Amino acid sequence: VCRKQQRVMPAVNTSSLHPAVFILMGFPGIEHLQHWLSVPFTVLYITALAANSILILVIRLEKSLHSPMYLFLCMLAMVDIGLCTSTLPKVLEVLWLDNKDISFEGCFIQMFFIYIFAALESSVLVMMAYDRYIAIYNPLRYTAILSQTRIAKMLVAFLIRDIILPGLIPTLASRLPYCSSNIIPHCYCDHMAVVKLACANIIMNSYYGLSVAFSIAGFDFVLIIFSYIMIFRAVLKLGSKGARLKALNTCGSHLVVIMYFYITSIFNYVVYRFGNEIPVHVHNIFSVLCLLIPPVLNPIVYAVRTREIRQAFQKHFLKRTVILQQLSL
Known about the structure:
InterPro entries: GPCR_Rhodpsn, GPCR_Rhodpsn_7TM, Olfact_rcpt, OR51/52/56-like. By secondary structure, the chain is mainly α.
């Protein structure tokens, strides 16, 4: 304990009331299991990187997939890579190497990218739901409505929203004085885990973070639900029972992933403010999975179950592999 205190205390800059570094504790209460936790986290992270990278490459190589639907899938894959990469490398560094230090600036940079990519994930899901709505309700004017110009305008509007509103969260948090402790009871720089260390009133920070979460995630979720209600209405009017079941199965799997993302995100925000009875390590594991599971599930639900992407993958990867094996023999 004495050694740990000697290590932590010099990190506090008393002149500016900002610590030079923060100490990420990882998963307090289950320190003896942290190396075991690193195994599934590593597997999931590698899976997310590989699956989303392959999806981007397939869409880029196959010219027949250069349409709005697959462009949105490509956007989602890029955002998923950014979302898990903004968090998992440092989490794995804490678990594998026991390197718990993160600089003051690095902590808020990480926080900035986590919230930006989470907001972008929500925005892309909205655009994808709108894409499916147009494809079903106005298929003849699909390419005219979702032109490259309109997609670019939508993307710029969402980017402005997703940078300004969530970007103020780490900006406001970095201006607080941190004069009491620099030990964060988390495995990455979560907003509330950090600001609770401040020796100042954090009510504004807490309510602003919550308002941003509900204004972005809540508004987007309502739009997505409305789009899928209209999609379900159109699907139920299909003449073939087999076509209805197939469409409902596909839309249902999409909704499961979407609801997981939104419900867990809102739950994560609320728990840090009102869920004091939940063990810290339980919440920390849950918050990591909130950022890691969607990048793993999205390529499976949106891409693997899409026939055109499966065919493009076989065309550009499997056949080439077979040819190379035959040549080597």
